[in-house]
Amino acid sequence: MISTTIRGRYEGGVREAVTTVTVHGGAVKLNGNVTEATFVNGSSLEGLSFSLEKPGSFLIDFDVPKQDVRFQFMNNMRVMEKPLNFTYTHWRGDNRTVVDGTLAIDSSNKLSANYGFDSGNCKLGYSYVHKGLTTFEPSYDFAKNSWDVALSQRVDEDNVVKASYQSSSKVLGLEWCKNPISSGGFKISASVNLAEESKFPTLSVDSRLHVEL
């Protein structure tokens, strides 16, 4: 089966379009991505990438113009009967490696950690879901010595509203997501940098159209 996803994005006056063609080969998927930059000045390699993915197992992403490869491997184990999921990501060009881990204490509480081997930076997060509708997500960044916090509210089956604040950058954000954006919905976001005198909001719109052939 072949599926196509067209993504359009507008942010701060800049427009972007990305088309992804996916070939499903059993448990493995082959993705091809092109952007509008590939065709602006005639056919080129700009904005062209390929990826090979087995969901929940591995992802290999190849950026054609940069000749760069990203490797990502996923694994899981149980700690005191609780599921612990790991994601290992390595960027060959930047020689950068990051490990993410998520421990599900129960259906409402999760702990997460992110560690960068090159920088030594560690970020810890916590997620609490109240009655399946409200999600509270604080996190602490050791490198920046700062707290971030996000609060999401599910309005109905199709709509989620989220507010967030990054203390290190003093950026306040608000977004509205209609349907899962990965399956054809859209997301409208606005952010304000409280450290700037103008405090003029930046608006972005992200939408996707998904077609299966």
Describe the protein.
The chain is mostly beta strands and 213 residues long. It has a domain at 1-65. Helix content is 0%, strand content 67%. The chain has no helices and 16 strands. It has a 16-stranded antiparallel beta barrel. The radius of gyration is 19 Å and the shape is globular. The mean pLDDT is 89.
Number of helices: 0
Q: Please tell me the overall pLDDT.
A: 89
pLDDT < 50 runs, ≥5 residues = none
Let me know the largest β-sheet: 16 strands, antiparallel, barrel
What share of residues is helical? under 10%
* Amino-to-carboxy terminus distance: 6 Å
Number of strands: 16
Sheet/helix structural class: mainly beta
Write the layout of secondary structure elements.
Layout: E1 2-11, E2 14-25, E3 28-35, E4 49-54, E5 58-63, E6 68-79, E7 82-91, E8 96-104, E9 109-116, E10 122-130, E11 134-141, E12 146-154, E13 159-166, E14 171-178, E15 186-193, E16 202-212
Antiparallel strand pairs: 1-2, 1-16, 2-3, 3-4, 4-5, 5-6, 6-7, 7-8, 8-9, 9-10, 10-11, 11-12, 12-13, 13-14, 14-15, 15-16
